[in-house]
Amino acid sequence: MLVRDFMHRDPETIPADTPLLEAEWRMQDGGFRHLPVVRDGDHVIGMVSDRDLREAAPSEATSLSRQELSYLLSRLTVEEVMSQELVTARAGEPAETAAERMREYKVGALPVIEDDRLVGIVTTTDMLDALVKVLKARRGVPES
Questions:
Q1: In the chain, what is the straight-line distance between the N-terminal and C-terminal CA atoms, in Å?
Q2: C-alpha to C-alpha distance for 11 and 9, rounded to whole angstroms
Q3: What angle do CA 10, 78, 44 make, to 5 degrees?
Q4: What is the pLDDT at residue 7?
Q5: Which CATH number is 135's domain given?
Q6: How far is CA 75 from the centre of its chain?
Q7: Model pTM?
Q8: Which DSSP letter does residue 5 get?
């Protein structure tokens, strides 16, 4: 089984200069936990996760006023909190290779790149779906 068999094609992306609050809204609205961060349309420069957004959020124990917090958060961009160590997959590589890479680098999603262009995204949930499919096939259980 190859990455292209279960990746999400043409994934939602987010520009690097997007304010953090907008990124949080887009992730919640779309039900995403990871978004590829792009520059110039489809050139991936990083990934932002819901964890990145949570870690950038202020502590409950802050002494700043609500207005000060809102101002500071409105100035933060995705580029300032994204994971810059870009770990990717290729559409034609075996799923187990991508899964091993995800485990090695402890990431929950890989942007799928072909010819320096973003073509998809594969997540841990996709990997689990692929595993279930393979295990069911081995047991002769029809797909649901």
A1: 18
A2: 6
A3: 40
A4: 94
A5: 3.10.580.10
A6: 22
A7: 0.83
A8: G
CB neighbours (10 Å) of residue 63? 6
- If one counts the domains in the chain, the total is 1
| pLDDT at res. 70 | 63
Report the amino acid identity of residue 130: A
Task: Report residue 106 as tokens.
Answer: 């402890």
Domain annotation covers residue 144: no
Show the beta-strand stretches assigned E in the chain. 8-9, 14-15, 34-39, 43-49, 109-114, 117-123
Rounded to whole angstroms, how far apart are CA atoms 107 and 85? 10
73 occurs within a structural domain? yes
Q: Is residue 134 part of a domain?
A: yes
Tokens of 92: 């034609």
pLDDT digits (tens, 9 = 90+) for 22-37: 898 999 999 999 999 9
* 132: containing domain: 3-139
